[in-house]
């Protein structure tokens, strides 16, 4: 059981590191003056975080 939790933790770390790499690559494409907050992207990020939190809650509840 502890090994499964370790794998879940590693998967989570790699998942978030991949998301960080994508966001940093996207941020380097635009000049600093042209960076505008995209409300649709913020909503999507919040939705992903909530789904990920729900996944963890259901995983640890069982």
From TrEMBL:
Residues 1-25 form the signal peptide. It holds the Pfam family AGP. It comes from the Eukaryota. The keyword Magnesium does not apply. Coiled coil: none annotated. InterPro entries: AGP16/20/22/41. Keywords: Membrane, Signal, Transmembrane, Transmembrane helix. This is Arabinogalactan peptide 22.
